[in-house]
Structure formats: structure tokens, C-alpha cells
Amino acid sequence: MRIVLGVTGGIAAYKAALLLRLLTEARNEVHVIPTEAALNFVGKATWEALSGNPVHTSTFAAVEDVNHVAQGQHADLVVIAPTTADTLAKIAAGLAPDLLTNTVLATTAPVVLVPAMHTEMWQNPATVANVETLRSRGVIVMEPASGRLTGQDSGPGRLPEPEDIVAFLNAEVVDLSSGTRMGPLTGRKVLISAGGTREPLDPVRFLGNSSSGKQGVALAAAARRAGAEVTLLAAHMDVAPPAGVKVIPTPTAADLQAAVTKQAPSHDVLIMAAAVADYRPESVAEAKMKKGPGENSLTLTLVENPDILAEAVAKRNAKRRPSQRKKPRPRLIAGFAAETGDKEHSVLEYGQAKLEKKQCDLLFVNDVSGGAGFGRDDNAVTILALDQDTPVAEVAGSKDDVAETMIRTIADRL
């Protein structure tokens, strides 16, 4: 496994040398990226000798390899130990002034921060808020140890011992020997649909919708970070699928129905995030339809598309038997409801009605009045559960933040 070990400028940097030794003894390829401040505590020669790899700190180093991006792209795991309050704040803000923070921005691998700082800095409201922000994005922040700090001070903020960091990584993040990711969905298979289906009228025209696929892709990435094996059923999307995810193209509702029917029984979780067209043309012209002289209108006959979500729930439930100890798969099915309210009912009331109709386990309801949600980078979702009268959670923020909450909710229910 390829690990990036970041080291920042704190006195605890000397402990990172032993952590590096433990990681390499587990037969991992480790690339150390210290900050300039860290080199004041442990020199470059030490890191190169222990890792067997060249060490750089600047984004302008090894530019022929596009090193400031390549390190993150090629990493299977990024660990920063120690993580100072300064570096923690930079990562939370998305800043990238050096090679280490560039690597964090460029990676899709799990990122583990191991803070080390004085107690007052660790408990400062700014640091507390930064840790909350990072955890909401899926960054793993290990709790610091409590004990002797620099000088005469003592309290929480001490860097955990290298053996404890390795034990944490093995238990919570990834098996360092095999490279198997650990997390709340480790060992689970998750099937996610994303994007908007397009129903062809002829070879060049189609009926579609405004879905960009961003929320579905964010869900796939969050599930992958949680340790799941993820398959993405991709309708039309404006964004690329995340790394490490199997992709099956499903451009039309019929394609998506066929893929769900085939794939769902072998997965633990089905999340229907795709915006599926309600209707499709009754017939598709083999050639481009031409506009004749004097024609200023077009009549289309539409037929209703299948309710893929309700169909998946019905098939799953039909296999249940009271005497079965093991639930049929998917064990959990979640759907989406993009709703608008009116004079008679609120968005939440329409969402509750859809949940009762679909009978899925969870329903993610978002208000799309005025185009909110579609194509944007932020979202606001209310999570409803079939077995609960009140909402499970309400979450608003970036689609990545929303996806993390959704995946945690699913993991908790499994």
C-alpha cells in the first residue's frame, strides 16, 4: 500500500520517525512530506533514510511529475502526524500553500489527521470548529492523548504513541497489511444511481431533466471512504465518477431498471439518487424528425416509466419470510424525493406521502423550489424513515457534507 506520511512543525515530529518505521515494517511504501517547519525538528536526511524515498516540501519540486497532484492521486492513505493547529486550520479552509496541503486537496484516499498541540490550542473554539468541519467532510481526526506536553504543561493535546496510531489505523481506517479499507461500511456493497435519465425521441432529441449527478457522485465517494465496495449506475452526469468506484452506464429509465433488477440482489444497500424521467415517448423515430412546411406544433404520445424504487422494494420484501434470520438483500433501500410545496401541502408532507407510497427504508427529501439543489454544489435534505414518525435528521451544506450525513445514517441503521 502507498502511504503519504505528512509531518508538520511541532516538537512531536520526532515521534513520526518511529511511526514511519512501523509503517514500512508492515511492508508499505511510505512517502514522507514534511512541512518546512517540521524540518526544524527532524531533518530531511532522516526521512529519506527511513523511507527510502526522496523527500520534498515545495510544490515546485519534481514538477516534471506534477508532484503536487501526483502524490495525492497515487496515495492509498494519507496520515499527518503530528498535525499542528495551523495545518489543521489550513486543511479545513481548503488552503494549499505547500506540498502537503496540496496533496490533501488532490487525494481521494482516506485522510487521517493526528493532532498534537497545547491544550489551550486544542480546546480553542476555532480548532473545535475546524475539527467538526473536517469530520463532516469525511476526514478522520484522531483524538489526541492526554499527558506531558512541551515545557511544564500537561493535558489533552499530546501526540498518541506511534504504536497507538498504528492500532487506530488498523481498527478504524485500513488494514495496513492487506490494504483493505476499514470504516462503518467495510465489507458492505453499495449500489447507487446518479444523474438524470434521457428518454430519446429520435437519434438527436430526448426528454430529460436538470439533474447534474453531483449528489449521487458525492454519495458514491462518501460510501467509498466509509469502506464500502461501490457500484454507480450512471445516467447523464455533469461530473466525473469518483475513483475506486465501478461504473455501469444507464442512460434511460429502462436501462436503469434492468441494471437495478440485476445488481440490487447482490448489494447490501441501494440508494436511488438518479432523477428518473416519469414518462418516455411511446415510440422512438429511427431518423431525425423533420419539421414540415407550415408545421408549428408537435404532438407526442408519452407512456409512464416504471417506478424503479417501488419495484425494488416490492421485490426485496417479497423474499422476506418471518422465519428467516438473514434479511434478503438489499438490506436497506433509500430513495430521493425532489419536491416543491404548494397551497395545500408542504414539501415535507409530500415527502412523507411518497415514503408511505414507496415503502423504502429511508427517503431523502429536498426542496427544489426555484431550481434549488439541481446543478448546484450545495443542498438541504430532510431524512425520513419508514419506521419513524419524526425526521431522522436535517442537514444543509455542500453536497459532500450532505452525503457524509446520509452515509452515516445508513451505516448506523445497518
From TrEMBL:
EC number: 4.1.1.36, 6.3.2.5
Domain Flavoprotein: 1-168
Top-level lineage group: Bacteria
Cross-referenced SUPFAM superfamilies: CoaB-like, Homo-oligomeric flavin-containing Cys decarboxylases, HFCD
Region span, Phosphopantothenate--cysteine ligase: 190-414
Binding residues for CTP: 278, 288, 306-309, 336, 354, 358
Cofactor note: Binds 1 FMN per subunit.
The keyword Metal-binding appears for this protein: yes
Domain DNA/pantothenate metabolism flavoprotein C-terminal: 185-412
Region (Phosphopantothenoylcysteine decarboxylase): 1-189
This protein's UniProt keywords: Decarboxylase, Flavoprotein, FMN, Ligase, Lyase, Magnesium, Metal-binding, Multifunctional enzyme
Gene3D superfamilies: CoaB-like, Flavin prenyltransferase-like
Pathway it works in: Cofactor biosynthesis; coenzyme A biosynthesis; CoA from (R)-pantothenate: step 3/5; Cofactor biosynthesis; coenzyme A biosynthesis; CoA from (R)-pantothenate: step 2/5
Keyword match Hydrolase: no
Pfam families membership: DFP, Flavoprotein
Gene Ontology molecular function: phosphopantothenate--cysteine ligase activity; phosphopantothenoylcysteine decarboxylase activity
Cofactor: FMN; Mg(2+)
Name used for this protein in its record: Coenzyme A biosynthesis bifunctional protein CoaBC
Gene that encodes the chain: coaBC
